[in-house]
Amino acid sequence: MDKLYLKNIVKRYDDWVLQMDLHVQSGEIMTLLGPSGCGKTTTLRIIAGFIHIDSGHLYLDERLIDDVPPYQRNIGVVFQDYALFPHLNVMKNIAFGMRMKKRYTKTQIRDRVEELLSLVGLEGYEQRYPDQLSGGEQQRIALLRAIAPHPEFLLLDEPLSALDFQLRKRLRQEIQKVQRQLGITTIFVTHDQEEALSISDRITVMNNGQVEQIGAPVEIYQNPKTEYVAQFVGMSNMLSGIILHQEHNCYVVQTPHQHMIIPAQQEYLVHDPITFFFRPEESYLSVTPQEKNTIHGVIVGQEYLGAEILTTIRSKDGQEYLVSNYIKDEHFIQQAGQAIYLNIPVNACKTVGPAARTSLNPGA
User: Fold this and answer.
1) Which residue in 94, 172, 211, 228 is a FRET match for 131, CA 20 to 30 A apart?
2) pLDDT per residue over 149-191, tens digit each?
3) How far, in Å, CA of 64 to CA of 247, rounded?
4) Which domains does the chain have, with CATH numbers?
5) How far apart are CA 26 and CA 2, in angstroms?
6) How far is CA 198 from CA 82, 176, 245, in A?
7) pLDDT tens digits, residue range 270-281?
8) Which helix (H) or strand (E) holds 56?
9) Angstrom distance (rounded) from CA 60 to CA 62
């Protein structure tokens, strides 16, 4: 059952329009993923009740909430800057929402705060103040404050963006653990692909106020529906061409400088234009051709990433491609200028469609 349904939501600005139709299932973490200005935070603020829509409807547990004020929606929000009260200690910060509702006893509030602090490993922090906490501890307290009053829904607006890489990894696991234990339906807003892939049950990829694709992390990464999703989520090598003919279950595609063989899709016909891609990690290098699809070029750059080497290959026509080689492929480490073959297995090639309609200027 849908916990939240955004039905044909439209919010217009002078030169930009947000259009959204979204089902969020009970108990899931739904991530809104996209670059700055794509409409993620606008969507979140519409759900919270901070922004009024021009048309469409919002339903929470099948109850229409279009005109329900923010304080009556029973939705918890964690902002990007945490917004902790500097003059209140941890106990009072977490308890703030419960006190505002005026239906909890002092004992209930104390027990709830202690229960939540124990959940995130911060027992004994009740009397500390925000300026005595690390960034990660502040993030935990902001999360606990949002969930203390037993909200029906939780909104997280880029809650980890101000933290360093290693701390972000730890805290996204902690957010997921807390969410699972409490069963709170959650919308998580981020521009970080890795964050979205690791924490989400489903991802909504957004672009200029439009939804490009909604799906499980594996589906979004392995089967992107549009060129935008393929390029935004992970790294991709894009190619375009014309279908010459079909051989068994494959198309033979004429790209600008060579033929490529890709899996056939029913919606395409001979002579149709087609765009497809392959991931860097699904291709490999060799000194002689190894696959039906090979691109001859030279190594023009490499990035050492620890477990892998990201190598840039430039073909004869000047096009550049990325290939991910693991350290075991020592033959291709630090060989700039070396002539090489980039091999692409047929099944690594996947077709994509055009991006969703774009607007003149992105909104916040």
Assistant:
1) 172
2) 999 999 999 988 878 888 888 889 889 999 999 999 999 999 9
3) 53
4) 2-231 (3.40.50.300), 235-352 (2.40.50.140)
5) 6
6) 22, 9, 40
7) 999 999 999 999
8) strand 55-60
9) 5
